[in-house]
Specification:
- The complex is a heterodimer of chains A (308) and B (206).
- Chain A has 308 residues and is of the alpha+beta class.
- Chain A has two helices and 20 strands.
- Chain A folds into two domains: 158 residues, Immunoglobulins (Immunoglobulin-like); 102 residues, Immunoglobulin-like.
- Chain A starts with a helix and ends with a helix.
- The relative contact order of chain A is 0.13.
- Chain B is an alpha+beta fold and 206 residues long.
- The termini of chain B are far apart.
- In chain B, the strands form three sheets. In chain B, strands 3-4-9-7 form a four-stranded antiparallel beta sheet.
- Classes of the chains: A alpha+beta (308), B alpha+beta (206).
- Chains A and B meet through helix 1, strand 1, strand 6, strand 10 and strand 11 of A and helix 1, strand 3, strand 4, strand 5 and strand 8 of B.
- Strand 11 of chain A pairs parallel with strand 10 of chain B.
């Protein structure tokens, strides 16, 4: 009887201990899918065929079935939020692309080269064609739940030989003189009026007004942004390691096609609360001065009236 | 007599726990190193650590958990579930994460309503509100950071935008972005299960 008690109690303790020890170590992690490269720039000719490949990797601990697809690539607004739904003359390439292995198993910790072929029809619009190659890791399907599909895209920028027009202009450049902490930014807005995309190279140089030291300069690693045809893009050049307060000279240079635009300005960086305190003090001072002047003139007019 | 049994049990438990604790790191290693794992004896373990060398620009996404389940009570409060997306890229131009609803085949645009397992009354996309039947999402750093939006059929919902230089791939606080899926049900919404799909797609902003 005692032995039975002993064994039973030991088993209960052992079982409880195992539950607490084992559960955390078997916590499930999500699926991780990677694609490379993140974009391609390709020159195509009408009637020709082009073959290339992209790499997808399963960086997680579980095998999954990948699936490849092609979607149109356009943008929604000047911030270049992508639009993978809208189709127009610049997204016909979606119908020309096929994958050698559009779906299959991707074991954990492996990568796979996915070949794709672009068959360009003979009668296609001149200019650019844009699409995104999407690799997805289908999620779990349970009744009564919402499946979350993780996917990554590689953007295709293609130029079709023929009557291509690279045209664009700078709409505006701006450096705000008062900025509330990190990051300090300089803006430029550029419109593409041609029928192919072009790249904008942006550099930013920031120097201290007091002392003239260069505190940030990205001319060694400038920013590159692509502007699609029939679109306008707002480009921000930023400096993130901004001190809480300071006075700086900011110079931004934007280069695209055969154009260069330089804009400079003095920027006061200070916390928002400090700006509010200073603004409040200034407003109070103005009110006091106005009150003093009004009182002063009223008293003078009263004195004149009493004299007369 | 009973106290002897208890003392013996405690001694046994101590031994078992000690052995368990001794083995625990090995268990963790075995689960985290999933390629080839070799355990020798009881005091050492080794495993192959996968190394990835990606030449060129790459972007990855991790979704957790999947799928999400929400239980909305008719006439009750908004039921929610949180989804975490982690995006890592070595590009410096920035990236975006967009949310789309897709059909069974993974195609979009697709009607964003959740389909019922029985009957034909769907749960439409919209702003979840107590007393109304809607499901929606919120989160990220865009226009819907703190207010729900119903995913649209023809308009992609960009839920997170990372500006150039605003993230560090070694800092998960700058690469992990959560969004919340919320649902509410009116008192006349048929009870049952409703199913749908969201595609989260990460692309660079070159």
């Amino acid at each position: 009887m005692n032995k039975i008690h002993f064994i039973a109690i030991s088993l209960i303790f052992t079982f409880a201990a195992n539950i607490f020890l084992v559960v955390p170590t078997f916590a499930l992690e999500g699926v991780t899918l990677q694609i490379a490269p993140t974009s391609h720039k390709i020159a195509l000719e009408p009637g020709n065929e082009y073959t290339d490949s992209i790499s997808i990797q399963n960086l997680g601990d579980n095998d999954f079935e990948y699936k490849m697809s092609v979607k149109p690539y356009q943008v929604q607004d000047v911030f270049y939020n992508p639009d993978f739904v809208t189709e127009n003359n610049y997204t016909q390439i979606v119908r020309w692309i096929t994958f050698a292995e559009p779906s299959g198993n991707l074991p954990a910790h492996t990568s796979k080269e996915i070949k794709y072929t672009i068959k360009v029809p003979a009668d296609v619009p001149d200019g650019g064609q844009y699409a995104v190659l999407v690799a997805e890791a289908p999620g779990q399907i349970n009744p009564g739940s919402i499946e979350i599909i993780g996917s990554v895209g590689s953007i295709l920028y293609t130029h079709i030989g023929g009557d291509t027009r690279e045209e664009g202009n700078l709409v505006s450049s701006r450096i705000w003189p008062l900025q509330f902490g990190s990051p300090v930014t300089a803006e430029s807005t550029i419109t593409n009026t041609g029928n192919v995309d072009f790249d904008v190279t942006t550099t930013i140089n920031i120097t201290k007004i007091l002392g003239g030291n260069v505190v940030y300069d990205n001319s060694e690693t400038p920013l590159f942004h692509t502007v699609l045809p029939n679109s306008t893009r707002l480009i921000l050049a930023t400096w993130y390691e901004t001190p809480k307060i300071g006075l700086f000279k900011v110079t931004q240079v934007s280069s695209f096609l055969d154009q260069n635009s330089t804009i400079s300005g003095v920027v006061l960086v200070c916390p928002f609360w400090l700006a509010m305190v200073v603004a409040t003090i200034i407003v109070l001072l103005i009110i006091l001065i106005v009150y003093y002047l009004v009182s002063h003139f009223k008293n003078r007019s009263k004195q004149r009236q009493s004299i007369s | 007599m009973l106290h002897k049994v208890i003392i013996k049990s405690i001694i046994t438990l101590t031994i078992i726990s000690g052995v368990g604790v001794a083995f625990m790191p090995l268990t963790s290693e075995a689960t985290t190193c999933s390629l080839s794992t070799a355990v020798t004896g009881t005091t050492s373990a080794s495993c192959d650590i996968p190394i990835y060398a990606t030449v060129g620009q790459a972007i990855s996404i991790t979704i957790s958990p999947d799928p999400v389940s929400i239980t909305a009570v008719p006439g009750g409060p908004i039921a929610t579930a949180s989804v975490s997306t982690t995006v890592v890229t070595n590009t410096t131009a920035g990236y975006t994460v967009g949310l789309y609803t897709v059909d069974e085949g993974g195609n979009y645009p697709h009607s964003p309503a959740l389909e019922p397992s029985a009957g034909n009354v769907t749960l439409p996309a919209g702003v979840p509100t107590v007393g109304s039947s809607y499901w929606g999402v919120k989160g990220g750093n865009g226009a819907y950071a703190s207010t729900y939006v119903g995913l649209q059929k023809n308009t992609p919902t960009i839920f997170y935008t990372a500006a150039a230089g605003s993230y560090d791939i070694h800092d998960t606080s700058t690469t992990t972005h959560a969004f919340t899926v919320g649902a509410s049900a009116s008192t006349v919404q048929p009870a049952g299960t409703y199913t749908g799909k969201i595609q989260a797609i990460a692309t660079t902003a070159s």
